[in-house]
Amino acid sequence: MIFLTHNKISVATHIEAVVLPSCGAISTFIGTTRDNFNDKKVIRLEYECYNSMALKELEKICLQMRNKFEDLGRVCIVHRLGLVPVCEASVFIAVSSPHRAAAIAAAEFCINQVKATVPIWKKEIYEDATSEWKENKEFFRATS
């Protein structure tokens, strides 16, 4: 399950989407907007992407996860687009599996791959009315 949304991410709904009777573990990652960066007060983030390309990359990540980790149940990746206020989720990942080790490792692998390969761009908007598009260091290392 892969989603790009302009709406607030419903964590509970997406956790329920990965529940399976055969899986005893669900591992999640939630990336939220923090209120600071390098001594600047952040008031919100703004995300943009090329939807079809981002969705293709998210699909690739799901396939990589299935090849790398045995016995995964369901995978859910949600990335928010548009404006994301402080304390709200920008990205949500949930992975179910029969045992915790695979779920935890797969969730970590997933967020690292999302950051490294998915073309989603982030702008930080500061309290002083300035803003800055942020370079995704993981993405540039992976594409260099």
From TrEMBL:
One of its GO terms (biological process) is Mo-molybdopterin cofactor biosynthetic process. One of its GO terms (cellular component) is molybdopterin synthase complex. It catalyses: 2 [molybdopterin-synthase sulfur-carrier protein]-C-terminal-Gly-aminoethanethioate + cyclic pyranopterin phosphate + H2O = molybdopterin + 2 [molybdopterin-synthase sulfur-carrier protein]-C-terminal Gly-Gly + 2 H(+). Its EC number is 2.8.1.12. Substrate binds at H99, R100, K115, K122, K123, E124. Belongs to the MoaE family. MOCS2B subfamily. Catalytic subunit of the molybdopterin synthase complex, a complex that catalyzes the conversion of precursor Z into molybdopterin. Acts by mediating the incorporation of 2 sulfur atoms from thiocarboxylated MOCS2A into precursor Z to generate a dithiolene group. This is Molybdopterin synthase catalytic subunit. It comes from Bugula neritina (Brown bryozoan).
